[in-house]
Amino acid sequence: DLSWIRESQGLAFDGTDFWYVERKTARCDLYKVSNTGIVIDSIPTAELFGSTSIYLGGAAWDGDGLWISVYNPDTRVALYKVNVAARAIVDTIFVNGLQPTGITIKGDTLLYVNDGFSSNGSQGYDSVYAVNRISNAKLFSFGLPHPLNLQNSPRGLAWDGTYFWLIAEPVGGTGRQLFKYDLSGGGTPAITIPVS
């Protein structure tokens, strides 16, 4: 029974178990969950940041640690690597924009998406950014399907070993759509999944 699961801001798989980012009223917390749905461990964001008002936008496992994106408060906006055994932040990458949401790992590259809220750049742009997670060097970036200054509301990112996936608003519509990218060049720009 997984009825305890509430609104999620992200999910990562560490090879054995899941790390689930639970969205609460004024913060997010991390839960380690077995593949049968049993909570094994939890890490409150207050333990990591010393504050109870931390909002996370996504999570990704890099092989030995959990990366999380923090989008609020503005003074904490960044990507953080958590050593889950030590329950401590061990690395920080500062981001372009103020709303990093989804995050994923492709080898030594960390990809994240920023939600610019059609802000004309004041909160950054709706773009995907690639950063070398060893050197922290920005590698490349690309805009989302909507033209600049239109709401994309990007959320989840995933790398499946071949393609990069993004969840965002469909072009010219509302709701959510799954976008598939081939980072080597071409690809299918949008995939519609009916919700029942």
Task: Write up this protein.
By secondary structure, the chain is mainly beta. Helix content is 3%, strand content 45%. The strands form 4 sheets. Strands 1-2-3-4 form a 4-stranded antiparallel beta sheet. A 4-stranded antiparallel beta sheet has the order 5-6-7-8, with no helix packed on it. A 4-stranded antiparallel beta sheet has the order 9-10-11-12, with no helix packed on it. A hairpin with a 4-residue loop joins strand 13 (157-159) and strand 14. The two termini are 21 Å apart.
Keywords:
196 residues, mainly beta, 4-stranded antiparallel sheet, 1 helix, 15 strands, globular
Strand order of the largest sheet: 1-2-3-4
- As a whole number of angstroms, the C-alpha radius of gyration is 16 Å
- Taking the alpha carbons of the first and last residues, their distance comes to 21 Å
Q: Residue ranges: pLDDT <50 for 5 or more in a row? A: none
Average per-residue pLDDT, rounded, comes to 85
What best-fitting shape do the alpha-carbon axes yield? Answer: globular
Helix content range: under 10%
Task: Give me the secondary-structure category.
Answer: mainly beta
Number of helices: 1
Order of helices and strands: EEEEHEEEEEEEEEEE
Q: Mind describing the biggest β-sheet?
A: 4 strands, antiparallel
- Proportion of beta-strand residues: 35-45%
* SS elements, strand count: 15
List the helices and strands and how they pair.
Blueprint (H helix, E strand, L loop, with lengths): L7 E6 L4 E6 L4 E6 L5 E6 H5 L5 E7 L4 E7 L5 E6 L4 E6 L6 E7 L2 E6 L12 E6 L5 E6 L13 E3 L4 E5 L8 E5 L15
Antiparallel strand pairs: 1-2, 2-3, 3-4, 5-6, 6-7, 7-8, 9-10, 10-11, 11-12, 13-14, 14-15
